[in-house]
Write a structure and sequence with these properties.
2 domains, Rossmann fold, globular, two-stranded antiparallel sheet, five-stranded parallel beta sheet, alpha/beta
Length: about 210
């Protein structure tokens, strides 16, 4: 029996996942949490075979939680299930140790297949993500500007480029407005840009926001 910890801050999403997995004889939802700290607490106190992790939760960005979780329990498979398209976070999540990446638009049977695969120690990626990974290997020598950003800088960049204010970004990432402003300045400097308009244009052009 595969024991899954579901980490998502939306009760409706958690309920939907539980309903899908209730129909499988070999997978059970053994725990659920709604914030970042809860993921670390539950995963270290209890035994799970897979963590199903949303990367947008209160108390910190999911990429940060993913990194901390993998340092605490490196052998615990973490399958990222996110509302964000693959272009935004999938490659970064896999580099941080995620066993797979799915969007919340994925079909229920794909979710079940992914959980089964990562629980046996394998990676799960969609065919479209596999193509992106292959392409990145070919172009890794010449990195795009956004690929030089740290994980936190990248998170801030995506949120700013999606039209969020400094206050909204700060609230979502549990940071001060001053800290977010510092990140923004660093991002613009690294990417050799001077304002948000250039950042938004770049993000749209590279399919980082919709």
């Amino acid at each position: 029996m595969t024991r899954v910890l579901v980490a998502d801050d939306h009760p409706v999403v958690r309920q939907g996942i539980k309903q899908v997995l209730a129909e499988t004889p070999d997978i059970i939802v053994a725990g659920e949490v709604s914030d970042a700290q809860g993921v670390l607490d539950q995963a270290t106190k209890n035994d799970y075979d897979v963590v199903l992790l949303d990367i947008s939760m209160p108390g910190g960005g999911g990429l940060d939680i993913l990194g901390k979780l993998k340092s605490l329990k490196p052998r615990l498979p973490v399958l990222v299930l996110s509302m964000h398209p693959e272009e935004q976070y999938a490659v970064r999540a896999l580099k941080l140790g995620a066993a797979g990446y799915l969007t919340k638009e994925s079909a229920p049977d794909e979710l079940v297949a992914a959980i089964r695969k990562v629980s046996t120690g394998h990676k799960y990626v969609s065919s479209s993500l596999a193509e992106k990974l292959a392409l990145q290997l070919e172009t890794d020598v010449q990195k795009l500007p956004h690929e030089t950003l740290s994980h936190r800088e990248y998170q801030v960049m995506v949120l700013v480029a999606s039209g969020k204010t400094m206050k909204e970004v700060a609230a979502e990432l549990a940071l001060s407005i001053k800290t977010v402003s510092t990140y923004r300045s660093r991002i613009l400097e690294k990417m050799r840009m001077s304002n948000n308009a250039q950042l938004i244009s770049y993000a749209i052009r590279n399919s980082l926001v919709r």
